Amino acid sequence: MNIPHLTFQDLLPVAPAGVLVVGAIVLLLSEVFLSTAQRTYQAVIGTLTALLAGAVAMNNAFEPARAALQGYVVLDPFSQWMTVLVCLGTALASLLSAGFLNHRNAERGEFYALILFSAAGMSLLAMSAEFITLFINLEVLSISTYALTAFLRRGPRPAEAGFKYFILGAFSASLLLYGAALLYGATGSTRFLDVGLALPQAFAQQPGLVYAGFGLVLAGFAFKVAAVPFHMWTPDVYEGAPTPVTALMSAGVKAAAVVALVRTFLFLVKGLSPEVPFIAFSALALLSMVGGNLLALPQRNVKRMLAYSSIAHAGYLLLGVAALFAPATAKGSDAVGLFTATPLLGSMPNVAASVYKGLLFYLLGYTVTALGAFGTIAALERREDETRSNTWDLERFAGLAQRKPGWAAAMAAFMLSLGGVPPTVGFLGKLYLFGAAVDAGLLGLAVAGVLASVAGVYVYLRVVVYMYMRPAPADAPAPFRHWTTEVALIASAVAVVALGVLPGPVTEWFSRAGMVFGS
Amino acid sequence: MSHTVPTANYLILAAVLFCMGMLGVLLRRNALVVFMCIELMLNAANLTFLAFARERGDSIGHLSAFFIIAVAAAEAAVGLAIVIAVFRSRGTVNIEEIQSMKH
Amino acid sequence: MEKLQLFFQTSPVDPTAAGQALWLIIALPLLGALVTGVFGKIIGRQNTHLVAVGAVGGSFLLSLLVFWAINDFRSAAGSPFGPIAYAVGADFGTWFSAGAFKVTFGLTADHLSGSMLLVITGVGFLIHLYSTGYMSHDAGYWRFFSYLNLFIAAMLTLVLADSLPLLFVGWEGVGLCSYLLIGFWYDDAQKAFAGRKAFITNRIGDFGFLIAAFLTVLVVESIVQLPVTSLSRAGADGAMVASRYAQGVNAKGALSMPVLEETARILPNLLTQDIATGPLTGVGYGTALTIILVLFLLGAAGKSAQIPLYVWLPDAMAGPTPVSALIHAATMVTSGVYLFCRLSYLVVLSPTAMAVIALIGASTALVAALIAFTQTGIKKVLAYSTVSQLGFMFLGIGVGAFWAAFLHVVTHAFFKACLFLGAGSVMHGNGDEEDITRLGGVRKEMPVTWATFLIATLAITGIVPLSGFFSKDAILHAAHVNGIAGFEWAGHAAYWLGVVTAAGTSFYMMRLYFLTFEGPRAKDAKVPHAHESSPVMTGPLVVLAVLSVVALVHGLPIMHVQRGGVTATQALMENFLDPVFRTTHDLVAQKQFLVLPKEEHGLLGAYVQAWLIAVVAGALAYWVYRRYLPVVKKLPAALEPLRKLSFNKFYVDELYTALLVRPLTFVARAAHRLVDAVLIDGVMVRGTAWVTKQTGAVLRYLQTGDAQMYAAVMAVALAGGLVWALLRVMP
Q1: What CATH number is associated with residue B32?
Q2: What is the pTM for the complete model shown?
């Protein structure tokens, strides 16, 4: 057996994760050796580490796409940009956590270390190109988030949320693993490149085995992405987890899972009849877009509402994924249906580039928006109401515009962005994704998505209406003040508007050629 | 060896284990038992890897099993801690009673 | 004289630099909105006033400079189809692009948008100033000024945008501000409902706008795909047209104004052909254009309160009076007219659309005037009068008198703002009394308000030397002499409707004036004596009254131009807007869809006729309300049903309720019975939304909180998917 010869070039893709892990270890050690009462410095270390890792990843993002570490991971702009997004989300989440934990006397180095570990897991997950690597990184990410979810052990809700997340997460991970085992059996390899090469023949011989493997792996990913009907854990876990963790889960975990899903299935669909993956993704997208928005409608609990909204946003992302896997040959004058691709101009243009750009831009927009929205909620929570049922009720937002105009304006920007109203980043993200879907000919699905998102706008506007047009209740809590929270919220709000008005440079970066290795 | 067990038998055993684990997760009410059933599912996947690796005679499948065992152990540690936290806050590990957040 | 002309044609700033700086005009009020919105409470009332008024004032000064620059003989805005004379503008790069579709951040000020700039910032400035007095006791002052500044910014975006998407941003922005300001006193349920009504009505219109824009993209893209041989336009051969057109679409995007103008130049030879590529395959270009224009009309009808979407505007008077003056009279509601002036080159290519626009406009004008006859709220009368005047403007668009319609926009902005502010002043001085039957005799007590109100009233009724006369008469004149090819009857019908409405206008406006200002004070008046408003409120009134007189200059036929060897006389505004409508004029000459009169008609007869109508109708109002009714006390019984019909606004609101809202509510309630009775409020307007919401409410109970059930759902979904996939491969 040959000893692998590693070069610096091979380690380049995992460098951001390395930075994150080192930062996490520093934070763990700080908890042992520096025990001061004031622990805001830990949040600062966490933020700086995340930003440094992001800078490293951004530097990597301009490298040409290639396989590294003997094909176990890949270095391509898609995964590296995703790492940048995750690091951005992590930085904002640690800033938000400082005030949140401080208010609850729960500031601990482990918390930030876990955040960084989970970010490292996300980054590695996005670049994994082998099933066992994928599984290990998925577990690194998941185990950290299980622990983070249940971090505030005192209350009943975090423990319950952690428990549900753990049981269902482990369940779905074992589905994925079993699927990987079946595909290994069918193709004789776990590396995506080899799996892709061997799949056509394996499919011809044992279609049942390949389909079972395909379905199980897809179920595992659908759980992480929170696509309907694999979504049911989302509202409960999101509600119970500490709010900054929820923010990180909704943005980072989802981003990593979507990118890993695209990477995995780019190889796995080879040899399958093209309609099957396309219809599978279309169905998941449709159910998530419609289900997420419908379920969000009756919610008065804003945190839960945002959880459902994140399901709907997963649906929009899956719409982009479905566009990627749309059958390339159009059947001429096909009737427009929900699960058919009818390119407008008869032939399908090369949509892959616009899908990657759309996905990344959407994830960027969703990261800053969701972090900001959950951050505002976190700031309005009171430690005393951990056991109350109306902690996140809409009523909490009534009259916020009078009490805290700046916060209300920021929250309004986040809500409009989630609803996809110009001039926010959410609008442009939707525009790119739906545009790519229409280019690929997914007219029916795109129309369904637009209709669903119109229903969703009502949900977000309701928060705005409460903030601006309802008088404040007498016992309305004032948001607690902590400079880290304010910095994070201002940064997100500015990003939401600025990216919505001037997406130019960012989209320029995201539309580089050779975005994804192997596509 | 002339009396080797065919690979198919291993695979069927793994599939049966997997289904048993899955049914256990879906039906058993004790959190700890559910937890063990998940381990069963993971080990079914492990057995599948090993069976295929043995048939093909390559090392990847064997290596995978080791990694999976290690990861499962890490997961078990966190999982048990969470179960203990649940038990502390509610005094029970019956899943039927861990449903305060819904709708 | 020539020196003076030279002075006005040489701007102190370089036109190119003025174009580059256009964004500043929008940025100033936007910044003002931000500062007053975020810090308004901290910096105090005085500073908020200073910031808000200062931002709009600064914007006004910049607009003046820009206006000067676009009159400069050197000014020309860049466009892929060659420079546009008498315009400044700049492209600030790509805003966004999705696939082949691209939108740039381009702003352009030409003579049309330049005039709008002055109206918006000028009238806006006066109204801001007035508001500092009017809102002096309101606790939400900072919110108010923030919205108002935001509105100005959005409206400026609307007029400066050189592409439809950017215009739509402004379009939505003004809608949002309007909605926020109507519901400004949101603790009053009725006012909040008025806000919602405006919001929903406008959404219907916006839907039309969006579909129209989408169809336009498809048409433009199909033209790009056309073979070179089928493209031609006056002054260029096919290959050149095709390459320039493709370049233009590439550089500026399919929905930018230069591309649309070039499209209009190409379209005349294509009108009878069918579209060959894209989803519209098989539809004729002419049909597609008509559909697009009618959909744009739906959008404009929502924003500019035309039949069938006018119902929101009268209710919108629930907002503070300065808002009614600025948004619901002077600026926002005219954006539909502005849109059609911008797209005039497309309008003149479709006689059907022209006829529809003219008839919609004329009937709106008449219906609104009839309703205004019997309303008793001072602001209600003015609101219906606004709807009616907007109808006149659409009538002007429909008969191809774009300049006249736009002139009416300008003059209407002055006198209607003056009237609304005057009404606000009257209410301010009379204990917020709105009912004109309980006012009266205010003349002596509020002399400044009285004088300015009278001038504005005379202007709107069309008494000769005042501005309203010239603009309204220009529209009616055009309706009289211009013929829409194939739809001459529509032009005639619109003309006669217009004449009747003009008489009606005079009647209800004089009624309003006499009841409010003349005669004895009503017995049941709220306060025994009115008090005149403060100078900060009367100042803007005086300026606006002066403007509504002075604006007559624009309507004077004093410009002489050479047209094909003949000296023609043009009104000042017509001459001024000539560069804007050059393509339109060329297309009219080429296609003859609009039949212009061969020779000039004498204007004197028309002047006398219009004057007579106004005076007779006004005198009738005087006789009825000052001589007849005070004595008789009661209308003749024969007229009572008519009065009731008009007073109840022809029961249109009730009709909409019966035809649209009720059925939706019924559906919703049927579903409601099936579910738990939880929500009943808010159903009236949103039947469908309600059903959707209930579906969600049912679905949420699937979310039992049981982790095992969640896992079971996943397992079942997975198994179902696998079975489906296997069934596909295994026969």
Answers
A1: 1.10.287.3510
A2: 0.67
